[in-house]
Specification:
Elements (H helix, E strand, L loop, with lengths): L14 E5 L3 H12 L3 E5 L5 H8 L4 E3 L13 E4 L4 H14 L2 E4 L12 E5 L2 E5 L6 H14 L3 H19 L3 H13 L2 H7 L2 H14 L5
Parallel strand pairs: 1-2, 1-4, 2-3, 4-5
Antiparallel strand pairs: 6-7
Helix pairs in contact: 5-6, 5-7
């Protein structure tokens, strides 16, 4: 069997189904909502947090046992129950219909796995062990969270705005690359860590000026 192919999915507005109503399902629902998915939860019982989410209009909650017709129209399905029969049924239904499915902690019943993720604004770092050791993935995630702080979210906001400005003002692709490299190689990150916002603005102006950029 080959290695898993890493990919990021755009779930905005897409129907994603979570089967199960406990704590694990809560976490899966939250990550799907953060990705802009339209979430439907199917379970005979649901946690208070899921009931509250339905009350706020964040999710659709179906309080009954899973049935095969429930995945019609779904882009992605996650089964987060402690019932092996239900998990197997969900997986089989999805495999037959070529729907993305993840059965929590049961890689053979999955056609995709969910990595541990470190998020800092637009920056996301995914860690996967191909299902061999989620504990190791979590350990690495903790280490990366210490290494990559909130300043990376600020840096990416600056870089995103700067990229648009440079692309609009510089037609030569090689010159753009030089400018982008000079910005990334500068001490912007360290200045952001220290909270020196004025010096951040000055550094950007210095880098752009040194690259011959004219606004």
């Amino acid at each position: 069997m080959g290695q898993n192919y890493p990919v990021y999915l755009n779930l905005t507005g897409r129907l994603c189904i979570v089967v199960g109503g406990g704590k694990v399902a809560e976490r899966k629902v939250q990550s799907l909502l953060e990705s802009g998915a339209r979430v439907r939860v199917i379970s005979p019982a649901a946690s208070y947090a899921l009931l509250e989410a339905e009350g706020l209009g964040k999710i659709e909650l179906v309080l009954r046992e899973y049935s095969s017709h429930d995945i019609a129209g779904a882009f992605l399905v996650i089964s987060a129950t402690d019932n092996d029969r239900i998990n197997r049924l969900v997986a089989d239904d999805c495999f037959q219909r070529n729907i993305l499915v993840n059965v929590v902690d049961d890689p053979p019943k999955c056609n995709f796995i969910v990595p541990a993720v470190v998020r800092r604004g637009a920056l996301s770092i995914a860690i996967s062990t191909d299902g061999k050791s989620p504990a190791l993935a979590q350990k690495i995630k903790t280490e990366l969270e210490r290494q990559y702080g909130p300043e990376y979210a600020e840096l990416l906001e600056i870089l995103g705005e700067l990229r648009s400005k440079v692309i609009a003002g510089v037609k030569d692709i090689e010159r753009r690359r030089v400018i982008f490299k000079r910005v990334v190689d500068s001490d912007l990150l360290e200045l952001l860590r220290k909270g020196e916002q004025e010096r951040v603005k000055e550094r950007i102006e210095d880098v752009l000026g040194g690259s011959g950029f004219e606004s």
